[in-house]
Amino acid sequence: MKVGIDLRTWLTKFMNKEFLRFVFVGGINTVATYIIYLVLLIFFNYSVSYTISYVAGILISFYLNTFFVFKEKVSFKKFVQFPLVYLVQYLINLIMILVFVEHFNVSKQIVPLIVIVITIPITFVLSKLIIRGK
């Protein structure tokens, strides 16, 4: 019974309007960066394509999260700090991508979508800390 209460408390904490906006913005950002990734695959290997699309995604994410999700003002300090969230996510994602593609033969076209879903909660918490400055 205690597990149900703890799970309910956890879900209530994270399934608020702010988190839902974060997921929505993340969906928009994911579609945009996925399209960039697919186009870049024509010219580069998957790790270079992923890296370039990932940097584009950081810029998109910063502006959408600052204005739409957390409703804060842009500042240079936040802009400089924000990529740290995605540096952590990038390293985790790149390792997972390499493992999934090289060891589990997951399609290189699909694998970025899988790893992004896995890291959503971490990214939300870290983004909120930096953008809100708390």
Secondary structure blueprint with pairings:
Layout: H1 2-14, H2 17-41, H3 46-69, H4 76-104, H5 111-132
Helix pairs in contact: 2-3, 2-5, 3-4, 4-5
Characterise the protein shown here.
By secondary structure, this protein is mainly α. It has one domain (2-132). It is 84% helix and 0% strand. The chain has five helices and no strands. It has helices at 2-14, 17-41, 46-69, 76-104, 111-132. Helix 2 packs antiparallel against helix 3, helix 2 packs across helix 5 and helix 4 runs antiparallel to helix 5. It is globular and about 40 Å long. The termini are far apart. The model has no long low-confidence stretch (mean pLDDT 88). Residues 21-131 form the GtrA/DPMS transmembrane domain. It comes from Paenibacillus woosongensis. This is Membrane protein.
Quick tags:
GtrA_DPMS_TM, 84% helix, 0% strand, mainly alpha, 134 residues
Low-confidence stretches: none
Order of helices and strands: HHHHH
Class per helix and strand makeup: mainly alpha
β content, as a range?
Answer: under 5%
Q: How many domains make up the 3D coordinates?
A: 1
* Individual helix count: 5
Describe the largest sheet. Answer: none
* Average pLDDT metric: 88
Helix content: over 70%
Give the tally of β-strands: 0
The radius of gyration computed from the alpha-carbon positions, rounded to a whole number of angstroms, is 16 Å
* Terminal-residue CA separation: 33 Å
Morphology: globular
Subcellular location: Membrane
Organism: Paenibacillus woosongensis
Main location: membrane
Keywords: Membrane, Transmembrane, Transmembrane helix
